[in-house]
């Protein structure tokens, strides 16, 4: 089961989702999207919360109010963290998550530490948590199929972009060729490259016909 929440503090809204347990978290780690950002309470047990960004966005584009929603949701879903003040929540792009065979179920590491950020949460803000809980939906998606569909869409977009790029390159080459031919024609038509019978003598003209 995956729980979906809507952060509607901005327009268009953002989707936040959380795995039901560590086994569902394992699936989310495996089948996440490049647009996903992972959140977790630092050094404490908590839910794995994911924020799905819009295509082309990065962590720098997360609105402050949406970031606060994610942090509050992580804190609320941490047995220890929910009872503490001044906790730290770490977040990083899904692509920076690292999973090795010796890790426990639901455990995850990072490929690059410099891509991990921290946001401080002073205390629980019930208004935020209650607002998010009102949007909560429980679904059981096929995460593998969703991932495959996303990857297929990405490949099709890449093919389309490559095709368009090649078309533009062909048009550019054609234009350069036309310009080169035009310059060559103008060069041939210059006065110094042209001859006139007016400058030929009668003897020259007779020679031409012999």
How would you describe what is shown here?
The structure is a single chain. With 210 residues, the protein is α+β, with helices and mostly antiparallel strands. It has five helices and nine strands. The strands form two sheets. The chain has a seven-stranded antiparallel sheet with strand order 8-5-3-4-2-1-9. A two-stranded antiparallel sheet has the order 6-7. The chain starts with a strand and ends with a helix.
Q: What share of the residues does DSSP label as strand, in percent?
A: 15-25%
Overall mean pLDDT score?
89
Oligomeric form of this entry?
A: single chain
From the helix content, strand content and strand pairing, which structural class follows? alpha+beta
Q: Distance between the terminal alpha carbons, to the nearest Å? A: 100 Å
Element order: H for helix, E for strand: EEHEEHEEEEHEHH
Number of helices: 5
Poorly predicted regions are: none
Q: What is the molecular shape?
A: elongated
- The tally of beta strands, per DSSP, is 9
Rg over CA atoms, rounded to whole Å, is: 32 Å
């Amino acid at each position: 089961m995956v729980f979906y929440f809507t952060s509607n503090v901005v327009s268009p809204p953002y989707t936040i989702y959380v795995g039901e347990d560590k086994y569902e978290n394992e699936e989310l780690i495996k089948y996440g999207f490049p647009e996903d950002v992972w959140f977790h309470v630092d050094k404490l047990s908590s839910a794995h919360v994911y924020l799905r960004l819009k295509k082309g966005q990065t962590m720098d584009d997360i609105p402050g109010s949406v970031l606060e929603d994610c942090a509050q949701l992580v804190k609320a879903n941490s047995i220890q963290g929910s009872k503490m003040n001044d906790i730290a929540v770490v977040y990083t792009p899904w692509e920076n998550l690292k999973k090795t065979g010796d890790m426990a179920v639901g455990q995850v590491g990072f490929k690059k530490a410099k891509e991990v950020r921290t946001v401080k949460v002073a205390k629980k803000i019930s208004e935020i948590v209650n607002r998010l809980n009102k949007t909560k939906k429980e679904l059981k998606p096929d995460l593998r199929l969703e991932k495959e569909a996303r990857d297929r869409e990405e490949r099709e977009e890449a093919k389309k972009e490559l095709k368009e790029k090649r078309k533009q390159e062909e048009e550019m080459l054609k234009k350069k060729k036309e310009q080169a031919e035009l310059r060559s024609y103008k060069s041939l038509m210059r006065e110094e490259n042209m001859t006139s019978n007016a400058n030929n003598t009668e003897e020259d003209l007779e020679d031409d016909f012999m």
